[in-house]
Design brief:
heterodimer; A: mainly alpha; 0% strand; elongated; B: mainly alpha; Cytochrome C Oxidase, Chain A
């Protein structure tokens, strides 16, 4: 049993390494364009709501805590606690997604979604003071691609949490068998860590912040 | 001393008769059955890719573009490439022979994650069907390389569905690699140390490392390209601030290591065949094992040699050129070690060994011409010509595919419990070798003389060589068709195979042919080194009709 548990965890770690490579492609694109168009990156970053971003960061870190508590409860065979902590994690994850939706909506209103309606004017028509509209569009393209891919992974994580909650309710896990809880926990922590990288890279580029 | 072919009765419980009916196959978790499922679907995709190749070669019989229109021709070579690369070459050996043999060779009952193994097959099929449907409702004409901005902005074909198909199939590849890595780490039988593993395992392990680390990069590349095409986000579009060359970097960061995914498993097969048919342990086991890892590592460092004329800096090109020379070294180490294995060995010329000989010769030519291409000055001249096409077909077809066929024949008795007809198999191997060289050697000359690739019409002075090439392709096609028929024939009419028809060393030969579902009657305990041919019985390799 121990060997099976370790094997399953090993498999999940390797899968997480593939996820690093997956996000890595976008981080590489971010890095290359930022080196060339730093001012556009600053301009784009100024349009981020640091407060909401910081709240989201705290929400995710706290959700990793509740997830770890769920794993601990699984290791000690406390079925009810597992369910409580999994539900808490799910609620926090959903909160994150809700705040992200608010942010996306704000960007949309302010013509910050790349494409036809992208412009240097905000929702009320005021000039946002961008130095290089084209490359700021690139910043936002990567913003939406990276946070969007991250959000997709959170939605998948939410699905995994629901599956775990149901399975726990049905009594599937004991202190001798709880690999799925542990491994979904690993996945959840990974998605959290990706956000920990995204937040400073996208929100905290330059100290000068007007918002 | 004649060997007695122990007649296994077909009623003996094995993985093939351990359950009948579609569900027992489509919902199996047995790695051997999944390998057979892959074998069937991969053969289908090979036929489809071959069909596109046939149309290409027919068009190129005449200088004028008279068989198909240029747009159609663009679709033909694109679809040939996409099908052959993503739906044939990448999965072929790991998903068929790898899936079947890795647990047997390490002494395990199955792979680490049997259900994920089955999932990987379904993902492969779904991805393949998605891409095929897109191909048959209009096709895609960007080249299998999907370069931007044509693929993202200007092409009017089904780029996104094909990209989705490749994306889905990529997960199949990732899961296969993940399974192999975890199995090799954690499920070796007692006594099976890393240093006693067959080199087949070492090479598959190295290929799996690439699968796991590289495939996600093309996944995200395809996602970004699809987003660009659907929503015009501008990441590869200069008008919106983006850079089309970035696509090429991201694309080749996977697609170069991908070619090592295609060749390493084939090298794995060759290691096993040569040692058996030379009755001698592999010379320099550690060197061959570490060369596999070396190829995997160095393979990640050379991607921009596909981009020497794409506008990258000369200094960057210099670095990539040097690294590309270096990556040839571990491959050469292997070729030398295989040759040294044969030296003073007792060589016999069964079909698998014929394919191995073919591999060594053709892979060497293909690999050396790779060095030509790694040379900056030469590459400026021959980039995007038939020289490149000849180079990679020598490696992919003369190398990888011959390894696949050799392995298929070598382990056919183990997988099916039947012997294939040796005479027909030898004839086919000969046809493949002759047909292959006739098809692709003229293409080196054509490329050097300046015939560009991906053109459906060409100057008349190139016609003779093109006709030779098409003639060769016809012979090659026959060489591929024969095994299809006689291998199927052998399932019903072939001689019953003993446990170890080749008298080979290896755990897979110590169980029945075909193996029982759980692979071994009892967990093997390994006390011998790999390729312990000195201590194998001194009988000649039996020639079984």
């Amino acid at each position: 049993m121990g060997q099976q548990r370790e094997t399953a965890t090993f498999g999940m770690w390797i899968f997480l390494i593939t996820e690093i490579m997956f996000f890595g492609g976008m981080f590489a694109a971010y890095l290359i364009y930022r080196l060339s168009y730093y001012q556009a990156w600053v301009d784009g970053s100024q349009r981020m709501d640091i407060t909401l971003g910081a709240i989201n960061t705290a929400v995710l870190i706290f959700s990793s805590l509740t997830m770890a508590m769920a794993v601990h409860s699984a290791q000690t065979g406390k079925r009810n606690l597992i369910i409580i902590f999994l539900i808490l994690t799910l609620v926090l994850g959903t909160t994150f997604l809700g705040i992200k939706a608010v942010e996306y909506h704000d960007h949309w209103k302010n013509h910050e979604v790349p494409g036809q309606y992208f412009s240097g004017l905000d929702a009320e028509g005021h000039d946002k003071g961008w130095h290089d509209v084209a490359h700021t569009s690139l910043y936002f393209a990567l913003y939406f691609a990276m946070t969007g891919m991250h959000a997709t992974h959170m939605i998948i994580g939410a699905g995994l949490l629901i599956w775990l909650i149901i399975a726990t309710y049905k009594g599937k896990f004991t202190e001798n068998y709880f690999s799925p809880v542990e491994n979904v926990g690993l996945y959840w922590h990974f998605v959290d860590i990706v956000w920990i990288y995204l937040f400073p890279l996208l929100y905290l580029i330059s100290k000068k912040h007007s918002g | 001393m004649a060997t007695v072919v122990t007649n296994q009765t077909v009623e003996k419980e094995n993985y093939l008769n351990a359950g009948y009916g579609l569900k027992s196959w489509l919902l199996t978790s047995d790695h051997k059955r999944i390998a057979i499922l892959y074998l069937i679907s991969i053969t289908v995709f090979f036929a489809i890719g071959g069909f596109f190749a046939m149309l290409i070669r027919l068009e190129l019989l005449t200088p004028a573009g008279d068989l198909v229109q240029s747009d159609t021709y663009n679709k033909l070579f694109t679809m040939h490439g996409v099908v052959m690369v993503f739906f044939f070459l990448i999965p072929s050996i790991p998903a068929t022979l790898g899936n079947f043999l890795v647990p047997l060779m390490v002494g395990a009952k199955d792979l680490a994650f049997p259900k994920i193994n089955l999932l990987s097959w379904y993902l492969y099929v779904i991805g393949g069907i998605t891409a095929l449907v897109a191909m048959f409702v209009g096709g895609v004409d960007t080249g299998w390389t999907f370069y931007t901005p044509f693929s993202t902005t200007y092409s009017n074909t089904n780029v996104i569905p094909v990209a989705i198909g490749v994306f889905i199939a990529g997960f199949s590849s990732i899961f296969t690699g993940l399974n192999i890595i975890v199995t090799v780490h954690r499920m070796r039988a007692p006594g099976m140390t890393w240093g006693r593993l067959p080199l087949f395992i070492w090479s598959h392990y190295a290929a799996s490392l690439i699968m796991v680390l590289g495939t996600p990069v093309i996944a995200i590349t395809l996602v970004l390209a699809a987003l660009e095409r659907a929503f015009n986000i501008g990441i590869f579009n200069p008008q919106l601030g983006g850079d089309p060359v970035l696509f090429q970097h991201l694309f080749w960061f996977y697609s170069h290591p991908a070619v090592y995914i295609m060749i390493l498993p084939s090298m794995a097969v060759i290691s096993e065949i040569i040692t058996c048919f030379s009755r001698k342990r592999v010379f320099g086991y550690e060197f061959v094992a570490l060369s596999s890892i070396g190829i995997a590592v160095l393979g990640f460092l050379v991607w921009a040699h596909h981009m020497f004329v794409a506008g990258i800096s000369v200094y960057a090109a210099l670095v990539f050129s040097l690294l590309s020379y270096l990556v040839a070294i571990p491959s050469a180490v292997k070729v030398f070690n295989w040759t040294a294995t044969m030296f003073k060995g007792s060589i016999s010329f069964q079909t698998p060994m014929l394919y191995a000989f073919g591999f060594i010769g053709l892979f060497t030519i293909g690999g050396l011409t790779g060095l030509f291409l790694a040379n900056l000055g030469v590459d400026v001249h021959v980039h995007d010509t038939y020289f490149v096409i000849a180079h990679f077909h020598y490696i992919m077809v003369g190398g990888a595919l011959m390894g696949y066929l050799g392995g298929l024949h070598f382990w056919w008795p183990k997988m099916t419990g039947r012997m294939y007809p040796e005479a027909w198999a030898k004839l086919s191997a000969l046809l493949v070798f002759v047909g292959f060289n006739l098809t692709f050697f003229p293409q080196f000359v054509l490329g050097y003389m300046g015939m560009p690739r991906r053109y459906h019409a060409y100057p008349p002075e190139f016609q003779v060589l093109n006709v030779l090439s098409t003639a060769g392709a016809s012979v090659l096609a026959v060489g591929y068709l024969f095994p299809f028929f006689y291998l199927l024939w052998s399932l019903k009419y072939g001689a019953i195979a003993p446990n170890n028809p080749w008298n080979a060393v290896g755990l897979e030969w110590m169980t029945s042919s075909p193996p029982p579902t759980h692979n071994f009657e009892a967990t093997p305990v390994v006390t011998w080194e790999a390729y312990d041919y000195e201590n194998q019985p001194q009988e000649e390799v039996p020639v079984v009709r």
